[in-house]
Design goal:
Order of helices and strands of chain B: EEEHEEHEHHHHEHEHEEHH
Strand content of chain B: 25-35%
Strand order of the largest sheet of chain B: 6-7-8-3-9-10
Number of helices of chain A: 9
Structural class of chain A: mainly alpha
Number of strands of chain B: 10
Bound molecules: adenosine-5'-diphosphate, magnesium ion
Number of helices of chain B: 10
Number of domains of chain A: 1
Oligomer: heterodimer
Largest interface: A-B, 14 and 25 residues
Radius of gyration of chain A: 21 Å
Structural class of chain B: alpha/beta
Radius of gyration of chain B: 18 Å
Distance between the termini of chain A: 44 Å
Shape of chain B: globular
Number of strands of chain A: 0
């Protein structure tokens, strides 16, 4: 009985410690963003890595999500002869929810793992120590550019996902299910508010910060050689994804 | 050479442990200006921990480290960075930045701490690479280099900002005997040409005798003996003798 409490207590304390260290790294990153020198090249190259290279993944995810949404909601709405509302459902679901969440999850899988692996390798091969000895702050040099690039690129990717998702829904409804294109488009625009899009973009910013902070944290504090890098990579993706899903609920509830 | 006996680095009663692994248990060490100090000791005795404490990569639990008389153990990161500009460090595996080319690696300190333009930095990098006997490598990436070349590039990076103190973490480990001698030769030259103070840690006695003015032996968390290479060879301490002769039997406990 005692050991059970000890076990749970131990994990709980480690959880608190870990949360504290992540929060501190986040705070440090924010402070360092505003402290000179300001570098443009590194954030730009990270933006290419995080943003441009993620476009194929985001496009395919969004297209098929929009398409399947159209199919599923059509099946449902046909039962009470409301097929014309498919456009509305697709637009709202994609912009408010599925665009940001699925983009966040997919990009975290792709980019978060790469960030953790890259920083983790730098840690275990003493490159981060080398940065210290060259009187350079590794948080400023390594984490700030990744954080900024994620914060900027996530919303842009979500705009992409919104457009592609709505187009996917349109394609299935009009070309496969034979809905009237004019009505579909009108139903999409009539009920879509700017607020729907803004809330999706706000989510994207939060998800970008979560992914960058968690993944950089896991990589930055890697211990234990190549094996440690592997573990850090896995943890980065799992923890980013979970926190994205959890924070998604709370942002939605707040903006409800 | 004129003897300068002023103390450059002074380590007093340094303690450092990791959870319940007591690594340093009261290290005392004095390194004089312009001197080449070599710290010897078996694998895992804490040689790397010692120099990482000196350059502020690890914080000791207690004790004092003074560089040019200034206490460094209590400094915050910002003041520590000022002190670090006096140091250059050669890491065991080089620790070159994978994503930067060779000349960008060598010029890293210049890029971040001077207002020199890229062209000038590259010229200095090429010059420093020349000092360590490398030419036509400036545009390669670190992954294209052999082990010996990586160490030399790392040395070029360490000397690029013209430090007063050089720290070498096992400079010859993992190299063939000829390349090891090339590195030893470079370390000796660095000292002659640049008049730096240096601390090298190693378990390679050939290297130690070649580069050292004085040799200190680290054993069970303490410096047990310091002396010139000759005094080291003649040591009557059984632990030192066992180590320099590389015998498995003796007072040193092998775990
Ligand atoms: N960052 C660290 N965290 C925990 N233990 C460490 C750390 N660095 C070194 N150690 C431990 O300290 C001891 C000495 O390590 P080190 O100084 O690397 O030995 P060496 O003399 O071979 O350079 C080892 O037992 C090692 O496990
Ligand atoms: Mg070592």
């Amino acid at each position: 009985m005692n050991s059970v409490f000890g076990y749970i207590g131990g994990h709980f304390i480690r959880f608190l410690q870990e949360s504290g260290r992540i929060t501190m790294l986040f705070g440090q990153t924010i402070v360092l963003i505003f402290r000179p020198p300001f570098d443009v090249r590194e954030p730009l190259s990270q933006m290419e890595e995080i943003g441009v290279r993620s476009i194929p993944v985001v496009v395919i995810t969004a297209a098929f999500t929009g398409m399947v949404l159209a199919l599923q909601s059509f099946t449902g709405f046909r039962r009470f002869h409301a097929e014309t509302l498919v456009g509305t459902v697709v637009a709202l679901s994609v912009t408010r929810e599925l665009g940001p969440v699925l983009t966040g999850l997919m990009v975290s899988g792709r980019v978060g793992s790469a960030m953790a692996a890259e920083l983790g390798t730098m840690r275990v091969t003493e490159q981060i120590d080398a940065l210290h000895t060259l009187a350079t702050n590794p948080v400023k040099y390594l984490i700030v550019p990744r954080f900024l690039a994620s914060l900027v690129m996530f919303p842009i990717l979500v705009v992409f996902a919104d457009i592609i998702g709505i187009m996917g829904g349109y394609f299935v409804s009009v070309k496969i299910l034979g809905t009237n294109p004019t009505i579909y488009i009108r139903r999409t625009w009539d009920y879509l508010e700017l607020n729907d899009i803004y809330s999706g973009l706000l989510k994207a910013c939060v998800f970008g910060m979560i992914m960058a902070t968690i993944s950089c944290y896991q990589g930055f504090y890697t211990e234990g050689g190549a094996e440690g890098v592997g573990k850090a990579t896995t943890r980065a993706v799992v923890l980013s994804s979970l926190l994205i899903l959890i924070s998604n609920y709370f942002i939605t509830a707040l903006l409800f | 050479m004129v003897e300068d006996t002023s103390v450059k680095i002074e380590v007093v009663d340094l303690h450092k442990s990791f959870s319940n692994n007591q690594v340093l248990r009261g290290v005392n060490l004095e390194v004089r200006n312009g001197e080449s100090m070599v710290v010897i000791g078996g694998s895992g005795v804490g040689k790397s921990v010692l120099i990482k404490c000196i350059i502020g990569l690890l914080r000791p639990d207690s004790g004092s480290i003074r560089v040019d008389g200034q206490e460094v153990t209590s400094l915050n990161e910002k003041s520590l960075n000022e002190i670090r500009k006096k140091f250059g460090m050669l890491f065991q595996a080089g620790a070159l930045f994978d994503s930067l080319s060779v000349w960008e690696n060598v010029g890293f300190g210049l890029k971040h701490h001077t207002s020199l333009r890229d062209g000038e930095i590259k010229a200095i990098a090429v010059e420093k690479l020349g000092l360590v006997g490398l030419s036509h490598v400036e545009d390669l990436m670190p992954s294209e280099l052999s082990g010996g070349m990586r160490k030399r590039v790392s040395l070029a990076r360490a000397i690029a900002i013209e430090p007063e103190i050089l720290l070498y973490d096992e400079p010859t480990t993992g190299l063939d005997p000829i390349m090891a001698d090339v590195i030893n030769e470079l370390i000796v030259q660095m000292r002659k040409k640049l008049q730096v103070t240096s601390i090298a840690i190693t378990h390679d006695m050939v290297s130690a005798y070649k580069i050292a003015d004085r040799i200190a032996m680290l054993y069970e968390g303490k410096i047990i003996e310091v002396g010139t290479p000759q005094q080291n060879r003649d040591s009557r301490n059984a632990i030192v003798q066992q180590f320099i002769q590389g015998r498995a039997e003796g007072p040193i406990k092998v775990r």
